[in-house]
Amino acid sequence: MTASISPWDAIIGYLQSAGVQHLFGLPSDDLNIVASLPSSGMDFILCKDQRNAVFMSAGYALTTNQMSVCVVGKGPALSNTLTGLLEAKNLGAPLLLLALGTGGDKLGTRSFQEADQISLVKPLVKWAYRVEHVDRLVWAMERAAFLAINGAPGPVYIELPENLMDQPVPTELQFAPPEKLSCSPSLRELDAAWSIIETARRPLILVGGGMKSGTGDVIERFASQHGAALFATASGRSVINEDHALFCGVAGLYTDLSLRQIWNESDVVITLGSRLEETATFEWDILLQDTPLIQVNVELEDFAHEFRGIKLLGDGYAAVEQWLERRGQEPDEAWLETIGRCKQKAFSQRANYLEELKRAPGIHVPELLDMIQAEFPEDLVLLQENGLQDMWSYFYPYFRFASGSLSIVPSDQTSLGFGAAAALGASVATERPVVALVGDGAFNLFCSDFMTAVQYQIPVIYLVLNNGGYGWLQNQMNYKHISGQDFPFVSEAVKTGIQIPQYEFVESLAIRSKGEAREQLQLAWQKYKENKLVVVEVFADLADVHEKISHVYGDFPLYEQQASKN
């Protein structure tokens, strides 16, 4: 008789060989996975909400640059993950979602929780596959893991029919852990781009989230060699040491007004690992009307065709390494002076604004960010949301990511609650301090899994900016002078305080004034070092917004030229 194991034993065995250490999720009635775990050495973080489970998995993947795994049930359990998959796909998070499915013997019979799950998830993943026979189980796992981490990383999906999970799997399995591949653009593409780069006097490099899988300072060295201004997309932050002399902030919507001149005067823009979504290209139709654009991406779908220029298919680091070996012109001193002058103006305006805020009552987010940089270690992992007040951290130089730090932000989908939940996954993945800067709306949406942090003793510092609700919508209503008494998006009653469950593992603090802010942040750090989950409620003023987003028009602020006329 041939020896056999259960399908879950085979799955766990493969994941173990692939180096997976943690699983996230909420299994269905099939609890055989629990029986397969003890001998594996892996930990299963049982979540309370499937959406949060995918967010946590994404946070884990983005922190480790490795594939994470999420396990859920079928039907509505699977549909609850769709928001998380949408976010993971747009973030480029390598994530394997394993879900139970209706057995093949019951398909089409209106069986309990039957749904066309493949059709639901297929638009949101790189690959979706339903395993119909145990002979295809290990093959499916290997292919899914390979696709998750290669090319542009992203989520993949495997469906496990219920009747499959009762069938024996032969023990003589050979597991092939996933191999990470890389590819350089063709010599023809590199030469075509170089013909523009070598003659450029005012180059600009934009680094996207697709560059987070790399290491080293090759981009900084290339920028220094050619005198190129360095910018990042929101998701590409922390790829570059933001204390570098040529780093100038975040592209598009989040570019400081003092730094717009650099975009306007650049004579070539090189984008590395970016899909060039709308926030990153805000105002480009004005600032880059005739500027050639060089795009480098590993995925064909990631190229933006609304911009003219040269496209290079391949790894951004490989392209930069090739260009580094070629000597172009010496950096243009006038361009370096322009970069330095614009940066100095931005830092000076930040300093003046912080001085102005000292005379204003209450605590303001720029002051809070300044204290975080002073009181928390430089190597922190900062999880962000995309609400009205949390967006201050997107605006360089109000917050800077030094060498060794990590920024994790929502994608252009900006799913509410992503940062709050992803912080738990990040904390499981690293020993570095994890800080989540979130609004009260996002925090309350996440709170179904607050108990998950308590149960598994996952330390995080939550800085909850409480403006009494959904500040972005209220800000739009106020800006457009719409009478909204019947539709209040924020409430003073809500602003009286969020309800934090009381546990020995949890430390609840509050900041209502600037006088107590530094002391409370110091206490938060001390309690975090004692391995506690710390929630610091910061009472935020609705009017505390960056000047770039003070003129609201729908999803986006007005262009600077339009706003200045108002």
From TrEMBL:
This is Thiamine pyrophosphate-binding protein.
